[in-house]
Design brief:
The protein is 40% helix and 14% strand. The strands form two sheets. An eight-stranded parallel β-sheet has the order 3-4-5-6-7-8-9-10. It has a two-stranded antiparallel sheet with strand order 1-2. The chain is of the alpha/beta class and 273 residues long. It is globular. The active site is at 51 (proton donor).
Amino acid sequence: MANEQFFTFHNGVPIPKIGFGTWQIPNEEAYDAVTIALKTGYTHIDTALAYKNEENVGKAIKDFNISRENVFITSKLPAETKGYEETLKAFEETISNLGVDFLDLYLIHAPWPWDDIGKDCTAANIESWKAMEKLYKEGKIRAIGVSNFAESDIQALVDACEIVPMANQIPFYVGRDQKSLLQFCAKHDIVVEAYSPLATGQVLDSLELKEMAAKYDVTPAQLCIRYCLEKNTLPLPKSTNEDRILENSQLDFSISPEDVEALDAFEDVRAKS
């Protein structure tokens, strides 16, 4: 599923193995953050209509003067937007914001609205997915997928639609390995993208993690991001700090199987917060 620089979706489209996340980066800061990321060497930028920063994400990419074919852009259908026509309309808003003609990856942001987590939106998700299949077939999206979907949510799409999702973007970090979901996605050849690979920073205070990072002569953040790769997931680190943006991409080391197993055994720090 992955080589040294890319993962590959089941339709053959490659995606850079590390993405630059822009969640919680305000629109006014997104331009500089994305510019730094591109300067640092990131070629995979992840945003969403709900982040309200697509405009400056797109402007930074355009102003950086990188060819459109050499940058991988992901955006997402808002979690509360469900339905066929609603999806087509939201997609047009996204590509207009970004100033592009196509997306490399488009995801359903969540199977339910954020203010009603757990609500059964299966029928509406199927309609949204059919609209995304249409956009995919028209060449407006190179790959389509989902985010925050559990096994049952994905299975509902597989059973009712033509195209198996190519990606599932989920919270994944040391202490939250989501083993069952990863196995399900691997079975269906779905690339798993790991958002919040640093558990929004909460895992970095662990003394055990710091000691392990020192053994590899890396930072705790680098260890956490590399862990995602060792688990065959695609990390999406986020920062607005130039030094950290660079640091988060410097992952030219491997974690021993024994240490991966030790990291697997960590408790979820966010579950206790």
